[in-house]
Amino acid sequence: MKKKLWLLTAVLLSLTLVLTACGDEIGIEGEQSEAKTGDNGDEASADGGTDEAEEADDGAENEGSGDDVWTYYDNATWSEDFNGLQMEIQKVVVTNDAPAEDGSDGTQSAVGVKFKMENTTEDKFTTYPDQAELVTSTGEQISMPSMLYSDHLGGEIDKGVIKEGDIIWYLERGEADKIEWIKMTWDAREGPEDDFEADIKEIEVEVELN
Of 24, 69, 114, 186, whose CB count within 10 A is highest? Predict the structure, then answer.
């Protein structure tokens, strides 16, 4: 009987977490970017459908129309070709008004990265940017992004595959608006996910927010 009650409790808790995540998605396109698509079902523009951020002299633009809580740094970019696996940070965003990660009515500070990968070879790669550690100029060191709000980008990348989406970290000390740079660290290797003998490359990226 106790075992059945424990299983029921676990199921209800999982359902609560799923419903919470669905109700408060905070994709980089906006605070509640349902399924990250536009009205016509196509993928929404990553800059919220305006060119204001690209025209800002200092590289940052607060696209605060509607429910969008992010400040965008379109000039905060990076790219690398790892033996045919092309990886790129397309922009960095920050906010002090993200919906609380625990589903409560409060808000929290967060950092987000718009990330893209493409395997241009005939082989496989394995990498987990969606598990990257984040370090910020304000003294934060976050070991893992939010599993609820980040897109699933990691794992085995087969030939010709393109993966892109948002990676979001919740901050512990806040003050996202004072961040001057961020650093991301994660691993990548050639070969399938079950090839544990392949050489591992540690990727460390530092991006200025200006």
Answer: 114
- Rounded CA-CA distance 113/38 in Å is 20
DSSP string, 122-190: SS-EEE-GGG-EEEETTS-EESS--TTTS----EEE-TT-EEEEEEEEE-SS--GGG--EEEEEEEEEE
Stated pTM of the model: 0.72
> Which option is the CATH number for 2-208: 2.60.40, 2.40.160, 3.30.70, 3.40.1130?
2.60.40
Question: For the chain, what percentages of helix, strand and coil (3-state, to nearest 5) are there?
Answer: 15, 40, 45
Tokens of 96: 């002090």
Phi, psi angles (nearest 5°) of residue 18: -65, -45
AA identity, residue 8: L
Query: Domain residue spans in the chain?
Result: 2-208
Please report, as a single letter, which amino acid is at residue 199: D
In order along its 210 residues, the chain shows pLDDT tens digits of 444 444 444 433 443 333 344 445 567 764 333 323 234 434 333 444 444 434 434 555 554 444 789 999 999 999 999 999 999 999 999 999 999 988 888 999 999 999 999 999 999 999 999 999 999 999 999 999 999 899 999 999 999 999 999 999 999 999 999 999 999 999 999 999 988 888 899 999 999 998
For 59, the token pair is: 């590289």
Which residue in this structure is represented by tokens 């990250």? 36
